[in-house]
Amino acid sequence: MLPGIRQTYFIVFLGCTGLILAALYMQHAMGMHPCPLCITQRIFVIVVGLLALLAALHNPAAFGRKIYGGLSIIGALIGAGVAGRHVWIQNLPEDQVPACGPGLEYMFETFPLMDALRLLFQGDGNCADVVWQFLGLSIPGWTLVAFVGLAVISLWQALRKA
Prior knowledge:
Largest sheet: 2 strands, antiparallel
Strand order of the largest sheet: 1-2
Organism: Simiduia aestuariiviva
Strand content: under 5%
Order of helices and strands: HHHHHEEH
CATH architecture: Up-down Bundle
Number of strands: 2
Family: Belongs to the DsbB family.
Pfam families: DsbB
Oligomer: single chain
Structural class: mainly alpha
Number of domains: 1
Keywords: Cell inner membrane, Cell membrane, Chaperone, Disulfide bond, Electron transport, Membrane, Oxidoreductase, Redox-active center, Transmembrane, Transmembrane helix, Transport
Number of helices: 6
Shape: globular
GO molecular function: electron transfer activity; protein-disulfide reductase activity
């Protein structure tokens, strides 16, 4: 039997929470410092997770499910685009990897907000490092898989009957 609509939203929230906890574990316990694209992906995992939590608490009717589902799909697809770009950068030949850019704090302190955000989404040479793999996929590769899964679940939630 499939979980109910409210339960599915809560499961998505828990999945997103697990992804963020795994990222924080890798950062603080394993010493893997996130690059700008990693941070951007975390932001979109949080966005989708918070939308799922709000939907679970709200328990919307059909129209509300379409709204929550649509917003979640948008968040997941943007996150998938960022993760896909990250995977692409990681697979570039060494001579084509973008130069390393300034740190995140420096970007937001020095540049206008829109320029800092553009640099954040663009990624840099730090994003090309593959520091961990599982079953042949890097962290951004697994994050891309997660975002695709989140988009599919969000579409299913938006279209399913109660």
